[in-house]
Write a structure and sequence with these properties.
This protein has one helix spanning 2-18; strands spanning 22-23, 32-37, 43-47, 52-55, 63-65, 73-77, 84-88, 93-96, 104-106, 114-119, 125-129, 134-137, 145-147, 155-159, 166-170, 175-178, 186-187, 196-201, 207-211, 216-219, 227-229, 237-241, 248-252, 257-260, 268-270, 278-283, 289-293, 298-301, 318-320, 322-324, 331-335, 343-348, 354-360, 364-368, 375-382, 387-394. The chain has 395 residues and is mainly β. Residues 1-11, 13-18 and 308-317 have low confidence and may be disordered.
Length: 395
């Protein structure tokens, strides 16, 4: 029995060392479609059936907010800390001016599904959707104007790196560019007929697009020409985000997470710890990121997702925690000197289910185990440099 347990424990250390995305309870099983943070602590998630979630403690806890609608919501964007917009089915646009406390419906003037919303500032905003729909506002959502695009393909994502230059992608390889703040749009060939689901630009000229069949495209000239990058997967990619010019992430179906450290030249797979499809990814800094998806999935990383699944030497950084008294029936102290002051602690059962999750700031942390049933539990503490693990025996 001891030999079997040791094998399981060492196997868990290996998994923990390379799976650096942590699952957090969202309080819903609805599909989550978009995530956005206004600062390091405050974030918003929207999803099906009018779902809106809010966190004010960097994703540790999520509050189910009332959107006032039952439409599926596909995109959320905040041009400032108080003002936010979400869009979805039936041309729905909802707006808050008090950081999500109250949401009101804006009149979009259309019934087409809206897939993506983006604001360049507090006044100028854009939403795109089915049947080539592009609508713009210049008064903070009070009125929206339908723009003629001359295409009927569904549009899935919109991004503006500055006030005049904007980019939109959609089905069948569609890419559109505006140079006048959205008044007129020009189509450019992308070299693919795959659906393109997400677009992100790191500057006015350098941009990335992801889509079906593992498609990743890159441009260095504002979308005039595109180069296909090797993603290493045929899984559909739903969202792309770059926290800096060289570091980027793409997420997609079956829990796919890809990362590049060299501006898209190479992409490596990361272990997400889930098979649920992921729909949106967002980073608040170079290391801290969030991704959401099916079944109410919310994942967070505080170290850039850790190492890729190509097994680098992270195991040498995996330390064993000092836990005492152990066994215990009431409370344990978990001690480590290896982690930074701001670290994340999780306690899991033998099936890998997270039972306790919290941020810690002291080298010694007391945890009550009174509510745990008798048995063996695994402990993990992580920061941006190190993983530390241990086991608790609850009497």
């Amino acid at each position: 029995m001891k030999t079997v347990f040791t094998f399981i424990f060492l196997s868990l250390i290996s998994v923990l060392a390379f799976s650096q995305w942590t699952s957090f309870p969202s309080g819903t099983t609805n599909q989550l479609n978009s995530v956005y943070f206004t600062n390091a602590d405050t974030g918003y998630v929207v999803g099906n059936n009018g779902t809106i979630l809010i966190t004010i403690n960097a994703g540790t806890n999520w509050i189910v907010d009332s959107s006032g609608v039952t439409n599926n919501l596909f995109s959320v964007y905040y041009p400032d800390a108080d003002t936010g917009y979400a869009v979805g089915n039936g041309g729905i646009i909802i707006k808050t001016i008090n950081a999500g406390i109250i949401w009101t419906v804006d009149t979009s003037g259309i019934l087409n599904r809206l897939n993506s919303v983006f604001f360049h500032n507090g006044s100028a905003g854009y939403a795109v959707g089915s049947s080539g729909t592009i609508i713009i506002t210049i008064d903070g959502g009070t009125t929206w104007t339908l723009i003629s695009t001359g295409i009927s393909n569904s549009l899935f994502s919109v991004y503006f790196p500055n006030a005049t230059m904007g980019y939109v992608v959609g089905s069948s390889g569609t890419f559109l560019r505006t140079l006048n703040g959205g008044t007129t749009w020009t189509a450019f060939p992308t070299g693919t007929t795959y659906d393109l689901h997400s677009v992100y630009f790191t500057d006015n000229n350098t941009g990335y697009v992801v889509g079906t069949n593992g498609t990743i495209l890159k441009t260095l000239n504002a979308g005039t020409t595109w180069t296909a990058e090797s993603s290493g997967t045929t899984n559909t990619l739903e969202s792309v985000y770059f926290p800096d010019a060289n570091t980027g992430y793409a997420v997609g179906i079956s829990g796919t997470i890809l990362k590049t450290n060299d501006g898209g030249t190479t992409w490596n797979s990361q272990s997400s710890g889930t098979t649920n499809s992921l729909t949106s990814v967002y980073f608040t800094d170079a290391n801290t990121g969030y991704t959401v998806g099916l079944g109410g999935t919310i994942l967070k990383t505080t170290n850039g997702g850790g190492s890729s699944t190509g097994l680098t030497d992270l195991s040498s950084k995996c330390k064993i925690l000092n836990i005492y008294p152990n066994p215990s029936s009431t409370q344990v102290t978990i001690e480590t000197s290896e982690l930074s002051p701001q670290s994340h602690l999780t306690i899991m059962n033998l099936n890998g289910q997270e039972l306790i999750a919290r941020q810690i700031s002291k080298p010694k942390t007391q945890i009550s185990v009174t509510d745990l049933t008798s048995g063996v539990y695994f402990v993990r503490m992580t920061d941006d440099r190190t993983v530390a693990v241990g086991k608790i025996i609850k009497q």
